[in-house]
Amino acid sequence: MKSIKLKLFSGIVLIFSIFILGIATYGVTYKDFFQREKLKEMNDVIEEIKNYIDKDYDNRVDGKLEGLSEKYSVQIDIKDVLTSESIFSSHKMGKNNMMNGQQRFEVIEFIGEKEGISETITLDRYTGVEFLTAVGKNVYTYEISVKTPITIIDDAVNKSMKLLFMIMIPVGFIALFITALFSRQFTKPVIEITKKTRKIEELSFCKDLNIKSIDEIGTLAKSVNNLSHKIEETLKNLKEKNLELETMMNNEKKNQLARREFVSSVSHELKSPITVISGYIQALQEGFISSEEDRKYYLDVIGEETERLGIIVNDLLDLYKLESNTFKLNKKEVNINSLMKKTLEKNKFRFEEMNINLNFTEGKNITIIVDEVRLEQAVQNYINNALSHVDENKIIDINLKVIEDNVVISVYNSGSNIEDDNLTRIWEGFIRVDKVRNYKEKRLGLGLAIVKQIVNLHEGTYGVKNRKYGVEFWISLRL
């Protein structure tokens, strides 16, 4: 950025130098110019004198000639051509000069001649002064000589040069100071803009440029600020999109692994009862079972495994329906208290058979719009899960309450906690319980996966949390 400042300063200095050079050139050429102009003026004086003399020469003409001499700062001499006598002389020596004109003035340089007027530089032998001389002749009567000392021209040139330098030196310093100040004011915002653009190159989006000038620099600064904001926003969006893409890819990998595990688990779950049923049927067919009591036992086992197989198939069908985009809920107004009581009544025999200490806390007379069948299915799956994992304390607490604008159903069972890393995995189908709840060789079926889909279809929320002596599952639906 120093280069811009230096170039600007150098350019102005160059202009100033050219101006100084012009003054110097003026000093050299001004003398010749002034001399030419003076000769023109002297020629005009000669012509004017001729007009006076041609009309009538008398004492009044002398006064006019004196006036011309003073007006143009020249010496005027007029002499008779025939007698060489002086008719008029404006300088002090005049007619009483001991040396006549021819003896006193010597031509030392011939300049030129035009229209009967000879232009020369003559030397006054008496004073040693050089004169710029113009001589006009009337061949038959008189000769007019107009002179001016060259020292007058030199003095005029020297004084004008001195005056110019006296003016230009302070003006020059002032100009240089103003130039330095202006170049600093001009380059300062450019330097700031350059720093900002370098920061942008480094993807560092610091504070905006504070340049408020209403000119091209201000417009450029505003454009750089806008560019910085757009790049920052674009990079932010790009990072978000990359993060989303990375998350999607990770989720896709997880989904692929989950699908593989799901297929493997479904195969295992279906294979186990089928294997038992097949083995027991084969034993009965081949007559290995002789007693009626053993035959009855085998048939009971086949019936239990068949029922288990039917449950798995029905759960798979339910999950498939719920996950399909075409499934629609059959919503209507439902009294949640009544639904909960009806569900608990259906499980009364199981609670008594397992000696469960059941605590049910009713809520207010709550009515919401839901699919009654599917919500009852979700609550039943929570109860099934609690019955499967309750410990020897046999405690199950079911609560119904309103929190703000939501109705919350929670099912708690005493037992082992779930590891924090597995709190989200249990909502997938067929997760091994020994990985999640430390029960050896037991599995979670599709119950929680079905709950997840039912609640999502109702646009509600669900979850699980570990408590001090057990685990609590909950569902939250908007009133």
From TrEMBL:
Highest taxon above the source species: Bacteria
Coiled-coil regions listed in the entry: 221-255
Annotated EC: 2.7.13.3
Residues covered by the Histidine kinase domain: 265-479
A GO cellular component entry from the record: plasma membrane
Cell compartment(s), UniProt: Cell membrane
Protein name: histidine kinase
Organism of origin: Clostridium sulfidigenes
